Amino acid sequence: MPGTRKLGRPTDHRKAMLRGMVTYLLEKGQIETTVTRAKEVRAVAEKMITISKTNDLHSRRQVLAYVTKEDVAKKLFDEIAPKYADRNGGYTQIIKIGPRRGDAAEMAIIKLV
After folding, report:
1. DSSP H/E element including 108
2. What is the CATH number of the domain that holds 94?
3. Residue 6 to residues 9, 10, 60, 91, 112, Cα–Cα distance (Å)
4. Considering only CA atoms, which of 35, 52, 61, 63 is closest in space to residue 87?
5. Is 6 inside a domain boundary?
6. What is the spatial distance between Cα 89 and Cα 101, in angstroms, rounded to a whole number?
7. CB–CB of 49/41 below 8 Å?
8. CA 102 → CA 14, 95, 99, 106, 109, distances in Å?
9. Most buried one in 4, 6, 23, 106, CB count within 10 A?
10. Residue 105 domain-assigned?
11. What does the radius of gyration of the chain's CA atoms come to, in whole angstroms?
12. Residue 38: exposure state from Cβ atoms within 10 A (0-12, 13-18, ≥19)
């Protein structure tokens, strides 16, 4: 079935979780999570970076509608987007780090390249 992964959560919970994870990734530069979540976060984070490469009012409002912290949105436009100005996609990297101790879920680190 094509489309987004459901991650075992209701729609509103899933969207809120992804918003939080994307915001945290853009704030810190890397996060540790499960492989499936990392793949979902990658899709949204790369869209946010691509939108922020065109630095106009419309793109700022689009990013602010998704990113939960204003200072992270400012960082996205001032620091992150200019860094990837000459790059078309592929702004993140997922590194698998083996199973989690509690439930053996496959873990990964997703970071900005």
Report:
1. strand 106-112
2. 3.90.1030.10
3. 6, 8, 28, 24, 24
4. 52
5. no
6. 33
7. no
8. 22, 20, 9, 11, 17
9. 23
10. yes
11. 14
12. buried
Range of the domain at 78: 11-112
User: Which residue has tokens 């204003």?
Assistant: 70
pLDDT band at 4 (very low <50, low <70, confident <90, very high): confident
Number of domain units in the chain: 1
**Whole-angstrom Cα distance, residue 81 to residue 76?**
6
- Contacts of residue 55, defined as CB under 8 A and 6 or more positions apart, other chains included, come to 77, 81
Q: Tell me: the pLDDT tens digits for 23-74?
A: 999 999 999 999 999 999 999 999 999 999 999 999 999 999 999 999 999 9
Q: What's the DSSP call for residue 77?
A: I
Measured in residues, the chain has a length of 113
Per-residue pLDDT at 2 exceeds 70: no
